[in-house]
Specification:
CATH architecture of the largest domain: Roll
Number of helices: 5
Number of domains: 2
Distance between the termini: 44 Å
CATH superfamily of the largest domain: Beta-grasp domain
Oligomer: single chain
Strand content: 5-15%
Order of helices and strands: EEHEEEHHHH
CATH topology of the largest domain: Ubiquitin-like (UB roll)
């Protein structure tokens, strides 16, 4: 099946099986490997992306359900850099988004596996509530599991990004 959608501001399309998930489309068909595959059952939040402005577990969404829709991934947060290969949707040579920068500055990244999903959940929260309380931050990331931290630095980073 052919699916056409907008990913990180760019029109993209791919031929996929009816059972292909959004995370598989992003990673295997479009080469955007920043979105991680964790549990594959919607339990861990590692695969969180923004679909039409809302955070979703991309392992629970079929790619064909995204026909004509808009997806934002971790790669789409960075501002494009000056290199020829950078641009919307690449993000690797660009300037980090303030949320990404806050995670680095607060030391909220350890192994890094949960980080893209955490950042995307934080992005969705701050887009709808630019000045959340710690309790609101904790609630917003409650679907994102991290095995390395006690979440304190992650919450600190999101607070820092909201300032």
């Amino acid at each position: 099946m052919k699916v056409a959608l907008t990913v990180n501001g760019r029109s993209r399309s791919a031929d996929v099986a009816a059972t292909t998930t959004l995370v598989e489309l992003l990673r295997e068909h479009l080469g955007l490997t920043g979105t991680k595959v964790g549990c594959g059952h919607g339990e861990c939040g590692a695969c969180t992306v923004i679909l039409d402005g809302e955070p979703v577990n991309s392992c629970l969404v079929f790619a064909v359900q995204c026909q004509g829709r808009e997806v934002l991934t971790i790669e789409g947060l960075a501002e494009p850099g000056a290199h020829a290969n950078s641009g919307p949707g690449h993000g690797t040579d660009g300037v980090r988004h303030p949320i990404q920068e806050a995670f680095v500055e607060a030391g909220a990244v350890q192994c890094g596996y949960c980080t893209p999903g955490m950042i995307m959940s934080a992005y969705a929260l701050l887009a709808s509530n630019p000045a959340p309380s710690r309790a609101e931050i904790e609630r917003a990331i409650s679907g994102n599991l991290c095995r390395c931290t006690g979440y304190v630095k992650i919450v600190d980073a999101i607070e820092k990004a909201s300032a």
